[in-house]
Amino acid sequence: MDSNTKPIIRVEDVTIAYGDFVVMRDINFEVQQGEVFIILGGSGCGKSTLLKNMISLVKPVKGKVLIDGMDIVTAEGPELLTILSKIGVMYQNGALFGSLNLMENICLVLEEFTNLPRDAMEAIARMKLTVVGLEDSAHKMPSELSGGMKKRAAIARAMALDPKILFLDEPSAGLDPITSAQLDELILKLSRTLKITFVVVTHELPSIFTVADRVIMLDKQTKTIIATGKPEELQKTSDNPWVRQFFNRQTELEVSK
Amino acid sequence: MTSIDYEISDKDKLKLVITGKLDAEATGNLWPQVFRKIDEINPQMLSVDAVGIEYCDGAGIALLLELKHKQEQNNRQFLTIGLKSEFEQLMTLFDPGKLSKSDKERASFVRFAENVGKATFKLLQDLKSQVSFTGELFVKLLSTLVHPGSLRWRDTFLIAEKSGADAIGITALLGFLIGLILAFQSAVAMRTFGAEIYVADLVVLSLFRELGPLLTAFVLAARSGSAFAAEIGTMKVNEEIDALTTMGLDRVKFLVIPRVLAATFVTPLLTMFNNLFGLIGCGLVMISIGFSPVTFMNQIQQAASLTDLFSGLVKTFVFGALIAGIGCLRGLRTGTGASAVGDSATRAVVASIIAIVIADGIFAVVYFIVGI
């Protein structure tokens, strides 16, 4: 990551609640341009909810989410479309449209937002599929793909409009270690070659240590961020026992020994 | 073999001597009698002689914990004697208070009030979402009609084929059978008055004005309304709807408008098939009771006018839009979990049928007022 980076995402004083139930409160952090930023935490701490908040699927009760300077929370109409065109999202199960093949899945976004001729769209789609290593699967339906292939295809679709930021929700979930490592390699490749900023929700330690430039850790009890920094530093120097416990894969019993 | 002995030493001291296996089967037998005995004696001190317990599973531990909890709740004492250390460890894993339902469950009337409140709130939320969805759909339909280029024509034709062309067989068969049955049943009654020729009038008017549109709408609700809800519901469960939103694609424009337009335009066509085959069924009965095809044709021409035909067909546009709109709304409102898609499909069919009948009633009143 370049040292002269600037924030491309700023989350300011965000509080998310469902009715009376507060999921997290007063969340503040910045994501620098070009970095691989990981949101981590235990199960049920609200990682995916925070990600959904950053892509405008869940509205916070308070706070701002500035993407490239524009607040996605209050944006509507053309302004929201401008922000959405700058981001791509890979959902946990890929969320590819089951009735369309991979080529059509990617062309769909291009059809809506560009006036490119069909041949050009297909060329772009093939290009995106090549980047993720699925150049031979353009005409396959999502149901014909393995879990790892679906996720790679979802990344290809998310990149259709050359977004500045890619949000990945649990990219390693349900994958074997080798496929998971291949996906990590892909994230690093895209980050280094295309300078895409990644915001990744995960709790897979090998992935975190492989790809992360910086992480934030959410805590279910305090409903806030309890650690920010590089994973290696947090593992060694964090004064929060839970953070050390997480990075060292220990149970509470082992920590107390 | 498990056995239990009750030793009452003082008036308020009870000792349960359990021997053998305290597994699920034995616990099932012991549970009611042990608690009956405790309620009967109300012991200040309850002890369980567990020296003879050679095996104890989750059910056995639950029994011991429940006994302990019952005593503690009443500020009385509980003791186990000679319980093997591995079973003792199992017992310490659980807090008896947390396992018991009695002190956690609220009074039934409170639960009832809570449930009524929740159901009312859910109903109001649902109503609100229906109103806002109808408004959104109406505005976007108008916008699509003004800018037809924005419609996903390929999807619309595919849906029209699935909902319309693929349903011709079942609609025609249903129409044929209904025409046949209606004619046959009424012919028996009409024969008493020597008025069998009027069977044709009865069938053609019923089909054109009511039965044709209604039957077709019911078939469409069952076939396509449920399919729309299930399809969109599955997309929601698979986060495909979220993907559409974050890709900046309008879910109503992308998913709902093509379905509503397709269903709106195929329902009248299907109704005409239904009517045609209904008349063929009726014609067969008429021929079988001695009328010539020409007589039958002349009779239906005299009985029904184009107004009758079109008064029925006009309704079907509304029925089609209602079925597709409700199916899509139920799909978009699908919750999470394995049963959510099934629930949405069921609700789509039930709500569509109710809406169709209500709309038909409104049409009947309007037609009566304008004299059709």
How does this structure look, described?
The complex is a heterodimer of chains A (257) and B (372). Chain A has a domain at 96-162. Chain A is built from 10 helices and 10 strands. Chain A has helices spanning 47-54, 77-84, 102-113, 118-131, 147-158, 177-194, 205-211, 231-237, 241-247, 252-256; strands at 7-18, 21-32, 36-41, 62-67, 70-71, 87-90, 165-169, 197-201, 214-218, 225-229. In chain A, helix 3 (102-113) packs across helix 4, helix 3 runs parallel beside helix 5 and helix 8 packs across helix 9. Chain B has 2 domains: 3-99, Transcription Regulator spoIIAA, CATH 3.30.750; 151-370, no CATH class. In chain B, strand 2, helix 1 (24-41) and strand 3 form a beta-alpha-beta unit. Chain B contains 13 helices and 4 strands. The A-B interface holds A 52, 55-57, 80-81, 84-85, 87, 89, 91-93, 95-98, 108-109, 112-113 and B 234-235, 238-240, 242-243, 245-249.
Annotation keywords:
heterodimer, A: 257 residues, alpha/beta, 10 helices, 38% helix, globular, B: 372 residues, 4-stranded mixed beta sheet, 13 helices, 74% helix
Which shape of chain A, going by the Cα principal axes? globular
- List the helices and strands of chain A in order: EEEHEEHEHHHEHEHEEHHH
Give me the count of strands of chain B: 4
Indicate the structural class of chain B: alpha/beta
